[in-house]
Amino acid sequence: MNIGEVSGRSGLPTKTIRYYEDIGLIHPNRSGNGYRAFSETDLHKLVFLGRARALGFSIEDCRTLLALYEDDSRESAQVKAVAQGHLAQIDAKIAQLRSMRETLSTLVASCQGDNRPDCPILRDLAGAADDQK
Amino acid sequence: MNIGEVSGRSGLPTKTIRYYEDIGLIHPNRSGNGYRAFSETDLHKLVFLGRARALGFSIEDCRTLLALYEDDSRESAQVKAVAQGHLAQIDAKIAQLRSMRETLSTLVASCQGDNRPDCPILRDLAGAADDQK
DNA sequence: ATAGGGCTTCCAGTAACTGGAAGCTCAAGG
DNA sequence: CCTTGAGCTTCCAGTTACTGGAAGCCCTAT
To answer: Are residues A81 and A127 in the same domain?
Structure first.
């Protein structure tokens, strides 16, 4: 399989696939003409990577997960630990965004949004202390 | 004021302050010795930037907001539009994270996390199709 | 022979800093 | 007066995970 076909089947851009090879996530063979020659196994790994990335795992997490995937003597606890760590980070991120969202939506609601210069949003940014008026 | 004092008063690292000057967000004067000489106005701008960044606005949004802040003839509608745009992005991000969180927490819950190799998380990553068994 | 599309590599840029190196300035102590 | 150390300066590189673009080879069809 050439890179174009693998790209179509995995849903990953060719650029990304080459990048994954660069950083050592996959190791496709080469044909005589210098083209990458992907095996079904390579394709499966790319699909795996695509799914893991879609769930927000970092590349380094993906590297770990892929190694575990290929290690028949892995313990599922190792996989679970990685996933739980990532889940905790997602929760932290969500909490942070919710906090921002709350402040921001309050500010947006308090702004008239008309042609006058007075704006509670700017007032808040200029100094949280100046709450009122 | 030297950069150290401004850093302390604004809560921003000196590195960040220099970076903000590099990209043209602030324009502090220079003393005879080559040190940056910050005015109270510079400090206020930095506090403004720190708050805006804390709310997740991009640097480019910050640039826009700062310009509006300094423009006495601004219309609050302009500010509100920027804030609403950002709010929409935050909502999109939260939705994405929640979706990831849901999938991931289901997977984590289904994994025994023991010393055996069998793992539903890896099974899912390897191909969403292989749901059961 | 030539045109095109796919493949190759390599370089640069993205967002917003952060760390580190080399070197100048300033205030205090001996 | 000299030294020491903190604080300041600039510049370069690295971070994350790609993405775009340039220059050029390969293969197939006309």
So the answer is: yes
